[in-house]
Amino acid sequence: MQHRKYPFIVGFLIVPLVLYITFVIWPYLQTFGYSLTNWTGESQNFKFIGLDNYTALFHDSVFRTALWHNILLLIFLPVITILLALFFAFMVNVGGRSTAGGVQGVRGAGIYKVVYFFPQVLSVAILIVLFGAVYRSDSAGLLNGILVKLHLEDANNPIEWLNDPNLVLWCLLAIQVWAGVGFYLVLFSAAMQSIPKDIYEAALLDGAGRGQTFFKVTLPLLWDSVQTSWVYISIFAMDFFALVSGLTPGTGYGGGPDHHSEVMATYLMRNFLSFGKSGYACAQGVIIMLVTLIVSAVTLRVSRRDRIEF
Amino acid sequence: MGSEMNRRDLVKRSAALGLVAIPSAGLLSACASSGGDDSSSDKPTKSASAASKDNPFGVNDSAPLDIMVFDGGYGHDYATALGKLYETKHSGSKASVAWTQDITGKLQPRFNGGTPPDVIDDSGAQQIKLDVLQKSDQLSDLTALLDAPYIDDPTKKIRDVLQPGTIEVGNIGGKFVTLQYIYTVWGLWYSGKLFKEHGWTEPKTWKDFISLSGEIKKAGIAPFAHQGKYPYYINVAIMDLIAKNGGLDLAKRIDTFDPTAWDDPAVKNGIEAIYEIVDKGYLLPGTNGLTHIESQTKWNQYKAAFIPCGSWLENEQMKATPADFDMKFMPMPSLDGDKLPFDAIRAGAGEPFIVPKKAKNPAGGMEFLRMMLTKEASGKFASAANSLTVLKDGVGSDVQLRPGTASTVTALSAAGSNTFNYNYPNTNSEFDVALQNLSAELMAKRLTPAQWITKAKALAVKAKKA
Lengths: 310, 466
Hints:
heterodimer, A: mainly alpha, MetI-like fold, 66% helix, 0% strand, B: alpha/beta, D-Maltodextrin-Binding Protein, domain 2, 2 domains, two-stranded antiparallel sheet, 14 strands
């Protein structure tokens, strides 16, 4: 049957491959093609201008700011989300006081698991409406309202959360963490449950505390999940379009105040649709793709470790 | 590490690759134009009918008309009604009206593919920028429309019955390419009821405005609100003060991105006047971060006395406005040494209607626009959408208007020929957005007036070069 193997495999792969080439690879190539032109986005009349868009991009301070914001998100979003998710997953699954020698989560673990997952079922559009009300810049906002009631701030001088250059990016980061932790908690919980209980029991018998159990047993055995999560969250950090364009001030996809929450995706859209610089926007798209690829490759390589079989 | 390992690694890596690819693919595939060819022989079917006085564009009665309107605050019923009228006038024709809120999403592929509709109301947040369309050579020259006879009085030409400024605003890149149908005025708005209750009167000068603001604040009301999340609005107020102080010449120099325009003392006077509001604490707390609806609603609730806006405000706030609110419009108050009188207002045609160059039935498209410019169509539009049209005296005395719209009619007749408008937002959206950002920073007290001027000048230098 050996000679029949390849047609068989090809038969399975041909449809997804054609779809992938048509809807992923071909647009990528087209984007790269357009990035070498001065296309305005509204007609087929454009000139080939070589790498001019890329040189311009290199000198564009707004794009550099946007890139820097994506890098900040790239550093903080995965770290905070994964640490919180790991902590909660550990507490929910193995963090409880073991009274009768067994390994279990804290009391009410089942409820916590469900509750933490709630934010995950909300779509981004709902998150935007919800957090628009939370961060609202006058005392009708949830945060400002509470602070005013507690006499921690003056109602005549409220904190303009999303209009404050020092706060805006962190406010958005908090939303994404809030929305994401639940999902990774469930992911890590599932991975933890596949770890044999006897390993934990052995650790307990050897007198390991919660901290030691976590770092010496749980984390190494969860490494695969953590690694995948890291890549996945990093890709989120490279995007961030919806939250920025929906919540932050500024005409045409937000990004304000004065570019302090600008990310590459919002700047790309503004150039593509508002400024008539679609060729330039395509060059940005190519850069975003390259950066995302590099980040994923680096993450997978740096975090590679020997697998522990169990 | 056995072969089992490798296979798992492979699966994991391809999964990761897929994750990389999928989200960005959505973003990037938007770039791909539909591959339509501009140079193809897809020429508009030139109508065979000869032009006559009744049919100045030589509309071919058998040619279908394809209309796409923005379905915003003004709705689409007016277009459907006009479409029916077009069909009766040109018997045998079929006028299909489509509407959307996503003009770019619906029409960008059609422009690229060379099959755009015959008339477009290119408006809303997702409008296709006119400067971009013009640079891409996608717009028909509508000069023929201006020279065509006015339907209500065929002895006049269309160009003679339009509000001042309509032709200028429709001129992009030296050609009249868009009929901006709605006539909008910009200025400050207040509640007649609130002012009557407290015995306040409309301040004519900036000095009066500031001293009245002090009184208003003492009464426990914030003197001034603005739609801070979208700095467009406060930027209009700033630029209006500058135009009134420096005169029409200065406005023109700003429009042509003459960097020295920003050294004019009028720029300093205007921006310092606005900054006085910030500096004296006359802003509604938190207004810098509020959306237009949030801030305007607080104004409707008497939490703030003045708000800058265009004349669409009344229609937009219809539901939030108390019945006895008595909405009033006023021009921006005068600064010392203003070149233009108090009554001068920013007024201009907005809501751009265009006929694409590659339309199949451009004659029908222009005829449709001509039919929009009648007393009947204009009056219906005014009472239904609470907005005036660019047809001069287009609202008969029989048309009932709400208080805000009625006060704009009064202001407009008081202004007479003293109206002005900037054209830079139409010719350079990038400059406009950047200037708005500066104004937002000023309102948040993160820029001083002097810094605002320096940065604005730098923007003009950059825009001039482009």
